[in-house]
Design goal:
- The structure holds two protein chains of two kinds.
- Chain A has two domains: about 1-180, Rossmann fold; about 195-319, TPP-binding domain (Rossmann fold, 3-Layer(aba) Sandwich).
- Chain A contains nine helices and 18 strands.
- Chain A is an alpha/beta fold.
- Chain B is built from six helices and 13 strands.
- Chain B starts with a strand and ends with a helix.
- Chain B has a single domain, classed as HUPs (Rossmann fold), CATH 3.40.50.
- The chains are: A alpha/beta, B alpha/beta.
- Bound molecules: flavin-adenine dinucleotide and adenosine monophosphate.
Chain lengths: ~325, ~260
């Protein structure tokens, strides 16, 4: 059996959902151990066990919460010294990317980034990596041990496997030389009512919304449907809405039951983040926009007229 | 107290984002097309120039690529950077992130900068893995996804973009930072800047100058397949009944 590690990123003590998605895949590929570092690691071990980790290595040193990348790299390198796994999986999230890159350089093994799937082949691992804006899928075989692969969030569905993990204290001393990039403060700007990643319905607006003043139209529709509002990068870069709402290659990946793209052309860098949605509805003035070629229902018309009418219809139905 | 800063900016030459990417018959990216300085790195150059204007010092551009990547360096020089280093070597063709980082690290080490500025991810590679590898190889802390940078003596502070806001991060220089596209609007090169750039130095080095051997790559590309595409559904004109059609679909998906 291949020996696999899953780096279970913790965010202020909570398991990043991507870790659970990775476990769902990893347990099909081999024996899985998870590594959880920082405040909440021990509590996280129970959840990680339920999702398929047989062993969870924990260490609750505050340094993991307070300093970027280096303490976690030290911990993983220390564990690696005790015995190298065949594969280390990371989520393709900002915090995990920072750790994975450093670790790959320290172990001199390199890595494969931004994968959407992994298959075992002849004792090695092959990652499926969206390439060329998502139009092509490259098969990349990892040549080194351990193979390090970063997987895009929402690539797999998490599910419980019903086990209990053995919890092992990971002993590592984080010396001052690794306490360098100090996190002084965390500032939350966006207080989302429904989290974009978890929403059953996502309504995203693009440049076709005409301006930031029209985004409340989408908020109203989202409110009526119990969904969340997303956006294209074009409107995030223009400063209409915060980055936290961006869907796509450099934003969030979502796979809701219904995704409504409003005034979004459907550039590949956007669609790579939403094409796994179950149902896609597009509202666009232009019948030739790329988004129309992938939507289950494309409505050619003016978003500023259709969205309020739709909101009214949803509200009427609820009454 | 402000003390002069020596800043290295890594700059990559990439296919022009404004012209559609095309694939050759053998599935490699078409190299015939227009190439430009990576837009993300252009923001890095701008940030470096602003820091230099505030603190004094020097801005050095380092790129790895074919000889024509000099054009990307030249672009940054015409914006106001002081000099450039191009790492070019036939052995570097198809280099992966680790080899790229090793080559960049060797060239940058020789400069002993206070600050290294990279883009968060390159336009064509988009893996964002070169910067953390580079930081590790340089023995520097990394402060990533900066949307704001402040330097005070040897104290560096950034605002790191997060999913729901930002983090305030602090470290002592020397350090490596990656910058987001939102950090600074790149300036246009003036005619004077373009003229001045012609006589600025671009040093060219190869792998042997950096005492690096290529080694085995981390991965082998075994094949390239078309991604699964979603089948197109129906496209209707908004003739007044469109809202009903959407409602019908929402009901089928059980969200209303
Ligand atoms: C490295 C890289 C990473 C990227 N990452 C992302 C990413 O993560 N997410 C992302 O979204 N993009 C990303 N992009 C940008 C992407 O390529 C597109 O530029 C962007 O998605 C376009 O946004 P848009 O659809 O809102 O704007 P546009 O392409 O300008 O489309 C606007 C659409 O609105 C329609 N429209 C106009 N008026 C109306 C109206 N009244 N009613 C209805 N429709 C109307 C138009 O017909 C058009 O189709 C990235 C690009 C690069 C190079
Ligand atoms: N060949 C290269 N030459 C110079 N800088 C590079 C090169 N490759 C990557 N970089 C730097 O690393 C950043 C992230 O690139 P990547 O890791 O390829 O997504 C880029 O924005 C550059 O600043």
């Amino acid at each position: 059996m291949a020996k696999i590690w899953v780096y279970a990123e913790l965010n202020q003590g909570k398991v990043n959902p991507t870790a659970l998605e990775l476990l769902a895949k990893a347990r099909d590929l081999g024996d899985v151990e998870a590594i959880a570092l920082g405040t909440g690691a021990k509590a996280a071990a129970a959840i990680l066990g339920k999702h398929g980790a047989k062993v969870v290595h924990v260490n609750e040193d505050k340094a993991f919460d307070d300093y970027l990348a280096e303490p976690a790299t030290d911990a993983l390198a220390a564990l690696h010294k005790q015995g190298a796994p065949d594969l280390i999986l990371f989520g393709f999230t900002p915090d995990s990317r920072d750790v994975a890159g450093r670790l790959a350089a320290r172990l001199e093994v390199g890595l494969i980034s931004s994968a959407a799937d992994i298959v075992a082949k002849d004792g090695a691992f092959v990652a499926k990596v969206p390439y060329f804006g998502g139009a092509k899928i490259a098969s990349m075989k990892a040549n080194k041990k351990p193979a390090i692969i970063l997987v895009r969030p929402k690539s797999f569905e998490s599910s419980e496997a019903g086990g209990t993990a053995e919890v092992k204290e990971l002993s590592v001393t984080i010396d001052a030389g690794s306490k360098r990039a100090h996190i002084l403060e965390r500032v939350v700007e966006a207080s989302e009512k429904v989290k974009l990643e978890d929403a059953k319905v996502v309504i995203s607006g693009g440049r076709g919304m005409g301006g930031p003043d029209n985004f409340p139209l989408l908020e109203d529709l989202a409110g009526a449907l119990g969904g969340a509002v997303g956006a294209s990068r074009a409107v995030v870069d223009a400063g209409w809405v915060p980055y936290s709402m961006q869907v796509g290659q450099t934003g969030k990946s979502v796979r809701p039951g219904v995704y409504i793209a409003v005034g979004i052309s459907g550039a590949m860098q956007h669609t790579v983040g939403m094409k796994a949605s179950k149902v896609i509805i597009a509202i666009n003035k232009d019948a030739e926009a790329p988004i129309m070629k992938m939507a289950d229902l494309g409505v050619v018309g003016d978003a500023l007229k259709i969205v309020p009418a739709l909101t009214a219809a949803v509200k009427a139905k609820k009454r | 107290m402000t003390s002069a800063l020596k800043i290295v900016v890594t700059v990559k030459q990439v296919p022009d984002p404004n012209s559609a990417l095309t694939l050759e018959a053998d599935n490699t990216l078409s190299r015939e097309k227009e190439v430009v300085l990576d837009p993300g790195d252009e923001c890095g150059v701008e940030e470096a120039l602003q820091l230099k204007e505030a603190h004094g010092g020097e801005v050095v551009l380092v790129s790895m690529g074919p000889e024509r990547a000099k054009d990307a360096i030249r672009k940054g020089l015409s914006m106001g950077a002081d000099r450039g280093i191009l790492i070019t070597d036939p052995q570097l063709a198809g280099a992966d992130a680790l080899l790229t980082a090793r080559a960049l690290a060797a060239a940058i080490k020789a400069e002993s900068p206070d600050l290294v500025i990279c883009g968060t991810e390159s336009y064509d590679g988009s893996t964002g893995m070169v910067p953390p590898m580079l930081a590790e190889l340089l023995g520097m802390p990394q402060l990533t996804m900066a949307k704001k940078v402040e330097v005070d003596g040897s104290n560096l502070k950034i605002h790191r973009q997060t999913a729901d806001g930002y983090e305030v991060l602090e470290a002592a220089t020397p350090a490596l930072i990656t910058v987001t596209a939102g950090i600074a609007e790149p300036r246009y090169a003036s005619l004077k800047g373009i003229m001045a750039a012609r006589s600025k130095e671009i040093k060219q080095v190869g792998l042997s100058d950096l005492s690096i051997e290529r080694g085995e790559g981390a991965e082998t590309i075994e094949g390239l397949a078309d991604a699964e595409t979603r089948k197109a559904g129906v496209v209707i004109q908004d003739d007044g009944a469109a809202v009903d059609r959407i409602m019908q679909l929402l009901a089928e998906a059980k969200v209303i």
